[in-house]
Amino acid sequence: MAQVVALRVTRRTVGAIADGAFKVLLAAVYIAGVAPLGRLLGTPAWLMVVSGVALLIGGGIEIGYTRSRSMRTYTQLMVAYDSGWVLAAVVGFLMARQGSSAGGEVWIGYQTAAPVMFAALLVAATPTKTTSDTTEAPAH
After folding, report:
1. CA–CA gap between residue 91 and residue 74 (Å, rounded)
2. Could you report the per-residue pLDDT of 25-51, keeping only the tens digit for each?
3. Tell me: the pLDDT tens digits for 124-138?
4. Which of 51, 65, 88 is nearest to 19 (CA)?
5. pTM over 0.70
6. Potential cystine with 41: which of 25, 62, 104, 106 (Cβ 3.0-4.6 Å)?
7. Of 72, 81, 66, 77, nearest to 111 (Cα)?
8. Which has the closest alpha carbon to 68: 117, 137, 131?
């Protein structure tokens, strides 16, 4: 007899999937608009491409692990990631405002390193147990 495992989709799960999808979309924008965005932000094209690839990988892993990692872990990682994102944006803005040309590099640099760290921490996190993990196979 086949067992049916119900997948419980919560708002947090939808939020984690949306967060990963946003990273994938942002990656596509960075890669597709490498030249104009690079000029606008004062960053080299290679950094825009590397950042796009990092966001693509990070977002894909984030989406892929939603069923096997706890939403508590996701929430903690998203809060840390977004806090760093805001801090990098503020630092980049302040640098640009003072005439530095490195403000865009700070912001894009963060978006290159942070998704990779997010993904690595998510992969290393303890998997959640599913109903099929805790249920023994029926005796025949």
Report:
1. 25
2. 999 999 999 999 999 989 999 999 999
3. 999 987 544 444 444
4. 65
5. yes
6. 104
7. 81
8. 131
